[in-house]
Amino acid sequence: MTPPLALVVLCTGNICRSPLAEVLLRDRLADLPVTVRSAGTRAVVGEPMAPPVAASVAARGLDPAHSAVQLVREHLADADLVLGLAREHRRAAIELHPRVVRRAMTLLELVRVVEQKGADLAVEARAAGPDAASRLREAVRLAVAERGATLPPAAPELDDVPDPWGRDDRAHAVAVTQIVGAVDTVSHWLHRSAGVR
Q1: Could you tell me the domains of the chain?
Q2: Residue pLDDT tens, the chain, 197 long
Q3: Helix 169-194 vs helix 17-28: angle between axes, to the nearest 10 degrees?
């Protein structure tokens, strides 16, 4: 039996951006063979989600229960895809486990690849194996390989979701909107790649 696709989502403190992405991905991909976990590159270990993020999660009918975790090498060893919420998180993952360079992107970088080439990648992935987990793993492999072949953003920082920690409600709302939109795009593409929906 093919193991499920393993996703790891990273931000800095693991109390705002990455736990939101984790909860949303887990919810949107619940019908697929996927596991999702999050961690922080400088985690506020044991802390819950930041209140504005927790409120946003609860407003969507999801459970905001969370305890921040520090990223360690073991989190990356078996990950099929490591998604940083900013370039610094992708870089930190690669420094911790250099072989993850072939499996690490920012969330918005993946969205850019999916928006430009996702339909073709999904078709190719669906031919990759007899089960959904194999097809998902191939989709992710193809997407990471396409990074350099897609049009870059107008500015490098557009591949980052800005950190809302310590900022006003508007900053949190902007981060939530970006992450929700990105997760919707990625989850739709993964369903198409798996041959579901």
Answers
A1: 5-194 (3.40.50.2300)
A2: 789 999 999 999 999 999 999 999 999 999 999 999 999 999 999 999 999 999 999 999 999 999 999 999 999 999 999 999 999 999 999 999 999 999 999 999 999 999 999 999 999 999 988 899 999 999 999 999 998 889 889 899 999 999 999 888 899 999 999 999 999 999 999 999 999 76
A3: 30
